[in-house]
Amino acid sequence: MGRIERFEDIEAWKNARELVKQVYQVTRKAGFARDFGLRDQIQRAAVSVMSNIAEGFERGSNKEFKQFLFIARGSAGEVRSLAYAARDLEYLDDPEFRVISDAATTVSKQVASFIHYLQKTDYDKS
């Protein structure tokens, strides 16, 4: 893995950014938009994925970065879980559900790979 200079260079962060965009697009729909609790929770979870990757990177230490990546991965799981709830409540149709679920799964796998990489190296951004 090449040296990463900015969190914006991290593929998982780029895909988490796209996940945020996708979540916000589907939560604008009429039924979803009126369910303030579920809408706000899935939006916060998606933003949390992106934000924790960035914040962890900016902390500068391998240990803290991994800690924030674990939180990001948990938030990706939360997005997937909330997408199921939205699907069950018929706020999302099957294709919309798959887009969100697949995007969250991809980010989760990327973050897990990054955690594994950091665990077996002495990576330190400074």
Describe the SSE topology.
Blueprint: H1 11-26, H2 30-34, H3 36-59, H4 62-88, H5 94-119
Helix and strand element order: HHHHH
Largest sheet: none
CATH class: Mainly Alpha
- Domain unit count: 1
Low-pLDDT stretches are: none
CATH superfamily: 23S rRNA-intervening sequence
Number of DSSP strand runs: 0
Summarize this, please?
With 126 residues, the protein is an all-alpha fold. The protein has helices at residues 11-26, 30-34, 36-59, 62-88, 94-119.
Describe what you observe in this structure.
The chain has 126 residues and is mainly α. It has helices at residues 11-26, 30-34, 36-59, 62-88, 94-119. It has one domain (11-119): de novo design (two linked rop proteins) (Up-down Bundle). It is built from five helices and no strands. α1 (11-26) packs antiparallel against α3, α3 (36-59) runs antiparallel to α4 (62-88) and α4 packs antiparallel against α5.
Keywords:
126 residues, mainly alpha, elongated
